[in-house]
């Protein structure tokens, strides 16, 4: 914004110089020009007073009296002449011009020449920047510029700290993701180990149950055989004795078989309950990890939004740099216009010198005419003795001329005094303008240092963009790893569900009692003495000899056991 105000001041001062050069010095009193120049100097003080808070000042053509923003130089000149320049009547202007021309006959040429030299010095000093800041101490912009530079350094430090913080948070997020990966792998291994243990315990329980069922089946078979065959005569006594002995052995073996089996079943059931409890704990832990993972994803999203905000700030910096470049271009254009005005000033000075030569030639002609009139008066005086009427008329005319001469002398004295006052005013203004030129030089040096800082900011911007791209790449990698973990968890859930289905199917298999079945479970043949009942050692159902003639190894026994056709196909895969 300070550069915009500088451009505004440069444009207004350039307009003032052109106006001052183009204007006829006889038509514009120097008091008005001094007042305009004073207002321009007050604008510098106004800039110093505002410091950095100049948002209400816009680029354009400002009126030096009321600070009104206008669109062009012509509009500014018209506004100033209409509202701020005292209106002079045409007759007064013509009278002032005529008086000045008349006084030029008696006024020394050095006064006119000094006035033109002073005007030329003011214009050249303003255009060339030969102003010293010591004469105007209140327009000291150095503290403000120092404060601006310190603020730029602080902003750059804050940007570096923010980038470092983002990098640290990115590294922390990556380390947390790695820890979550390790924990997920550890939980998966623990879950697989528990599933394997549970499967082994279930198989062991199934084997014990089948052994118990086999013992019960043998016992029931012995009881059925004893009940089926009636007591034989005495010639069959050896068989009956054998049966009684077998029955006694079974009765003795049955408690020994059932008690350890039941105890083992209870122990296995407790272990299964313990494993289920551990499985629930693992599920709880998995849910907790999911919530933590979700929180981590939200944190990563927040970091992404912060990165976008920083990119927006970087874009604002770029816009500011563009505005500064535009101001620099405008300033250069103003300097070009000032150089053009200097050229026009040289041409105007040449024209003023020509007018001065013309005034000197006119003064010489008037002097010759005065000499001629003096000679004529002497001739008339020598003839006055002869012509009294003519002498009286000449005396009257002489008195009139003396009266006019007295008026002209008074006017000359007043104008000389006014000219001395204006010369002193212009000298003071010249000194103030010298101060402003040094301030402009100092601002230009500060502008070069600002360009260097701008280059440093551009380097930091490029570095920040590279870091932002690296953060985006790391974020995409984290998303991919997170999706892989979610797929693994879904696979584990499906495997657990399949294991539960298998466990339910194995648990629902029961050993069918012989007494409750009268027909083959496959071919529906009725059981009789010739069609015997046979249990499938895998599903526990009752079949005839033809439907259960196949044997194969099962998970409960390495030796081949009798199984039905359906279980044989299931175990061997021979569909």
From TrEMBL:
Q: Which domain of life is it from?
A: Eukaryota
UniProt-recorded Gene Ontology molecular function terms: zinc ion binding
Q: Which residues form a coiled coil?
A: 258-474
The UniProt keyword set, sorted, is: Coiled coil, Metal-binding, Zinc, Zinc-finger
- Return the InterPro entries for the record: Znf_C2H2_type, Znf_FYVE, Znf_FYVE-rel, Znf_FYVE_PHD, Znf_RING/FYVE/PHD
Residue numbers spanned by region Disordered: 216-243
The molecule here is called Early endosome antigen 1
Source organism of this protein record:
Echinococcus granulosus (Hydatid tapeworm)
């Amino acid at each position: 914004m300070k550069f915009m105000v500088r451009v505004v001041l440069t444009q207004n001062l350039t307009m003032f110089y052109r106006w001052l050069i183009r204007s006829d010095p006889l038509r514009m009193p120097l008091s008005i020009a001094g007042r305009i120049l004073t207002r321009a100097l007050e604008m510098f003080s106004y800039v110093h007073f505002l410091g950095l808070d100049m948002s209400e000042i816009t680029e354009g053509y400002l009126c030096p009296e009321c600070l009104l923003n206008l669109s062009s130089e012509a509009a500014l000149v018209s506004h100033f002449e209409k509202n701020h320049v005292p209106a002079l009547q045409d007759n007064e202007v013509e009278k002032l011009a005529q008086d000045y021309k008349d006084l030029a006959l008696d006024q020394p040429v050095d006064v006119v020449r000094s006035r033109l030299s002073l005007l030329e010095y003011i214009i050249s000093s303003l255009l060339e920047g030969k102003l010293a800041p010591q004469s105007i101490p209140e327009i000291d912009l150095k503290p403000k510029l120092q404060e601006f530079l310190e603020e730029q350094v602080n902003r750059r430090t804050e940007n570096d700290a923010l980038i470092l913080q983002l990098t640290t948070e990115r590294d922390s997020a990556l380390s947390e993701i790695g820890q979550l990966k390790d924990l997920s792998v550890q939980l998966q291994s623990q879950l697989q180990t528990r599933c394997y243990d549970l499967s082994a315990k279930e198989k062991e329980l199934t084997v014990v149950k089948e052994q118990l069922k086999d013992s019960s089946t043998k016992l029931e078979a012995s009881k059925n055989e004893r009940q089926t065959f009636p007591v034989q005569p005495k010639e069959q006594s050896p068989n009956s004795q054998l049966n009684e002995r077998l029955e006694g052995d079974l009765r003795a073996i049955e408690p020994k078989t059932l008690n350890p089996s039941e105890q083992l079943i209870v122990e296995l059931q407790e272990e299964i309950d313990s494993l289920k409890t551990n499985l629930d704990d693992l599920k709880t832990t998995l849910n907790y990890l999911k919530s933590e993972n979700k929180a981590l994803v939200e944190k990563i999203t927040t970091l992404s939004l912060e990165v976008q905000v920083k990119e927006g700030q970087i874009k604002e910096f770029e816009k500011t740099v563009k505005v500064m470049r535009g101001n620099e271009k405008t300033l250069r254009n103003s300097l070009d216009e000032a150089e053009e005005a200097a050229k026009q000033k040289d041409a105007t000075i040449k024209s003023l010198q020509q007018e001065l030569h013309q005034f000197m030639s006119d003064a010489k002609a008037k002097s010759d005419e005065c000499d001629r009139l003096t000679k004529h008066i002497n001739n008339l005086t020598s003839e006055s003795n002869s012509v009294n009427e003519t002498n009286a008329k000449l005396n009257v005319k002489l008195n009139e001329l003396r009266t006019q001469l007295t008026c002209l002398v008074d006017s000359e004295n007043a104008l000389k005094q006014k000219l001395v006052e204006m010369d002193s005013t212009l000298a003071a203004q010249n000194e103030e303008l010298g101060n402003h030129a040094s301030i402009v030089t100092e601002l230009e040096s500060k502008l070069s240092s600002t360009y260097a800082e701008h280059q440093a900011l551009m380097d930091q911007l490029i570095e920040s963009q590279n870091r932002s791209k690296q953060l985006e790449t790391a974020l995409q990698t984290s998303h991919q790893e997170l999706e892989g973990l979610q797929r693994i968890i879904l696979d584990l859930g499906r495997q657990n569900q399949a294991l539960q289905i298998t466990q339910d199917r194995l648990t629902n298999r029961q050993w069918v009692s012989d007494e409750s079945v009268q027909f083959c479970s496959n071919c529906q043949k009725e059981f009789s003495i010739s069609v015997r009942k046979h249990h499938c050692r895998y599903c526990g159902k009752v079949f005839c000899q033809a439907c259960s003639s196949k044997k194969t190894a099962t998970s409960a026994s390495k030796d081949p056991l009798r199984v039905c056709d359906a279980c044989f196909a299931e175990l061997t895969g021979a569909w």
